[in-house]
Amino acid sequence: MREWSHVPCGMWGGHDFISGVRRMRAALIREHGDLDVVQVGEVETPVPAAGEVALKVLCAGLNHLDIWVRMGRTKLKMPHILGSDAVGIVTAVGLNVDSPRVGDRVIVNPGLSCGHCEFCRRGEQSLCVSFGILGLSRHGTFAEQAVVPASNCYSKPPHLSDEEAGALGLTHVTAWRMLMTRAQVKPGESVLIHGIGGGVALGALQLAKRIGAEVFVTSSSNEKLSRARELGADYTVNYKEANVVEWIRQHRGDRGVDVAIDAVGAATWPLDFTCVRKGGRVVLCGVTTGAKAETDLRTLYWNQLTVLGSTLGSTQDFEQMLTAVNVNQLRPIIDEVYPLDRVRDAMAKMEEARQFGKIVLKVAE
């Protein structure tokens, strides 16, 4: 129940009777900066335009993107609502929307595209000239209500809890595109995943095992490595206690692994080139340890490596990922669930890399 002190003068039940404007609570920033710029405040409730729907947000997963947005990777119009993932109930639809319908429980594809450029026309929405992501290019999902394109809504997988569904979208479609679309991993191939514990790394582990790959994972935490083995990781190593290159050689000889999946960036980039086999593939989707790193060009050309960047996913990537989740009854690993009011605590845990799995905000029942 909302405390009296939280309701501004003239407000009752989310409606401002002085101005006539409906209000809602949201986790937002009014300036870029450290964690203390994140606050939970009252903002105007959004109304869906043509082709859009309004959602009552139930749960919303955190992503490292929320940190980059907060810190000012892209300049934004303030105040700005954070958050890219959500599961929610449709409460209103704009003009020209046939599906979903009011009352439907849906998850959201966070990728935004124009729908008519050359890349969108050929089904490569994440290459769109105006590509964006919820919570980056427009207001996000850390709010009681969120407005999203109707075409970005999909039926919630029935086997998932709201917490799991709200954590699925961004990390699992990113992992799917890296493995399936970019690297085109085949059954029996070997995959190295750096820094197990984050959402993309765990999503990649789950999906790689489902397609029959042999998976190598690294971490600085023995507890995380133990949990990764429980999820099916074939080989694990603590990179603070052992040399990763020598560890790979112990199991793969001089051949190396077929694919390196990297969401870490500068700290692991040199390892990628020494751990993959001749003709192998390196796929990068993130730079949590830094965006600048040296590349040994001799290894690149001599070993005929393929280096692939990967960002989120296309509509087809999202739909195929969702099919795989439903068919295989996959569940995102949930680390902890926080109420919206504790968004700072949730973000602090993610920034300190203390989680194993997704951190989720529970916004409503």
Tell me what you see in this structure.
The chain is α/β, with parallel strands linked by helices. It folds into two domains: 4-168 and 332-362, Quinone Oxidoreductase, Chain A, domain 1; 172-309, Rossmann fold (3-Layer(aba) Sandwich). It is built from eleven helices and 20 strands. It has helices spanning 64-71, 118-121, 162-165, 169-182, 199-210, 222-230, 244-252, 269-275, 297-302, 315-328, 343-351, and strands at 11-12, 15-16, 23-29, 38-44, 52-61, 80-81, 87-93, 105-108, 111-112, 132-133, 145-149, 153-155, 190-193, 214-219, 235-238, 257-262, 276-284, 306-309, 334-339, 358-362. The strands form five sheets. Strands 5, 7, 8, 11, 12, 19 and 20 form a seven-stranded mixed sheet that branches. Strands 15-14-13-16-17-18 form a six-stranded parallel sheet, sandwiched between helices. Strands 4-3-6 form a three-stranded antiparallel sheet, with no helix packed on it. Strand 3 and strand 4 form a beta hairpin. Helix 4 (169-182) packs across helix 5. The chain is globular, with a radius of gyration of 21 Å.
